[in-house]
Amino acid sequence: MKMKNIFLAFLFVSAFLFGQNQIINIHNRNTISLNGEWSIIIDPYENGYYNYRYEENPNGYFKNAKPKSKTDLIEYDFDTADKLIVPGDWNTQRDDLFFYEGTVWYKKSFDYKIQPGTRTFIHFGAVNYDAKVYVNGMKAGEHTGGFTPFNFEITGLIKDSDNFVVVKVDNKRIREGVPTVNTDWWNYGGITRDVNIITTPATFIEDYFIQLDPDTTGKVTGWIILNGDKTEQTVKIKIPETGINQDVETFGEGWGSFSFIADLELWSPGSPKLYDVIIETEDEIIIDKIGFRKIETEGTNVLLNGESIFLKGISIHEESPVNGGRAHSHEDAEALLNSAVKLGCNYVRLAHYPHNENMVRLADKMGILVWSEIPVYWTIKWENPDTYDLALQQLVDMIVRDKNRASVIIWSVANETPRSESRLNFLTNLIEHARSLDPTRLISAATELTYNGRTITIDDPLSFELDIIGANQYLGWYSNSIEQINEFTWETKFNKPLVISEFGAGALYGFHADEQTRWSEEYQDAVYREQLKMLSKVDFLRGMSPWILYDFRSPRRPLPKIQDFWNRKGLISNEGKLKKAFYTLQNFYNSIK
Ligand code: GCB
Question: Does residue 563 have its Cβ closer than 6 Å to ligand 1?
Answer without folding.
Answer: no
